[in-house]
Amino acid sequence: MGKLIRAELFRARKINGFWIFTFFISLYMMVLPFVTVKADSAMTFFQGTLEGMAVAAMLIAMMPAYIMGRGYYHRTCMYEVMAGNSPFRIIFSKLISIALLISLIVCVSHLVGLGIASAMNSEGIVDVLAKEPMFLLTVLRFSVFGVLITMCVKSLLGPVLVYVRIMVESIAMIIASAATGTDLMEGGADLVVSNTTNKILNMTCFSQQGVLLSGEMNSSMVLQCVIGFAIEVLIWLVISYIIYKKKDY
Q1: What's the rounded Cα separation, in Å, for the pair 33 and 51?
Q2: Vertex 166 angle, CA 160 and 171, to 5°
């Protein structure tokens, strides 16, 4: 496992796109709230971050998809299978070396911006810090999806599918909002205590997870984020495992 992780990290560092994505995502997470909502405190910075999560989700999911896709395009990933590594070792090494790494980059950038905002005004910092673990889980969900969907298609088609997936979810949320007469893209706290249909939407549509964090944190909100993460990961893990077990390279 250690050798697979080191090899994956080495390949990622050699890809120019890795550094380009890292720069823009870091800049986006640190600066956006100061521009969009003119954040002047820890609380307003966090709210500004959540308002920009739709675009952030796209970048966070497309970055691992692009890195993985390059590996399949240049046929470097086939050597992991030829070396006799089990599908689980290959999958989890990529989740650790790519998905977890990208999640940490995003969260560190976010915390840097939060620190700047807190230095200006620490209002709401306790509430914000209480939500940070769920924020990390949300970011990890984006990056894990980017890795696993690309492992399923084994090509540079991964970033395209990421884009399509997030756009379809956004359209679905708009249609559902119109059908139910409820703005499902806002007011996450109200949705948590709402009907079963809205709860299912919150759990299955990962673009909605950031909105859930905008309300007052409670056990129901945490449970929905955790269950949604578990469902997402389990589905794509099973599909990736089945595909990799065939070893059709």
Answers
A1: 8
A2: 120
User: What separation in angstroms does the CA of 13 have from each of 83, 88, 101, 107, 163?
Assistant: 22, 23, 12, 19, 24
For the record, the structure tokens of 222 come out as: 């945490």
Which of these, 158, 149, 140, 137, lies nearest to 60 by C-alpha position?
Answer: 140
Please give the DSSP secondary-structure letter assigned to residue 172: H
Residue 50 CA to residue 30 CA, distance in Å, equals: 12
Identify the residue whose tokens are 């995502």.
25
3-state secondary structure of 122: coil
* Angle separating helix axes 196-204 and 219-246, nearest 10 degrees: 50
Give the DSSP H or E segment for 203.
helix 196-204
d(CA 235, CA 156): 21
Residue 29 confidence (pLDDT) above 80: yes
pLDDT digits 0-9 by tens, 140-196: 988 999 999 988 888 888 889 888 888 887 777 677 667 766 655 554 434 433 456
- Measured CA to CA, the distance from residue 104 to residue 178 in angstroms comes to 36
Alpha carbon distances (Å) from 135 to 26, 33, 213, 221: 15, 15, 7, 12
Q: How many other β-carbons are positioned within 10 Å of the β-carbon of residue 48?
A: 20
Rounded Cα distance, 117 and 111, in Å: 10
Q: Which long-range contacts (CB under 8 A, 24 or more apart) does 183-188 make?
A: 184/208, 185/211, 186/211, 186/214, 187/214, 187/215, 188/212, 188/213, 188/214, 188/215, 188/221
Residue 191: the pLDDT is 41
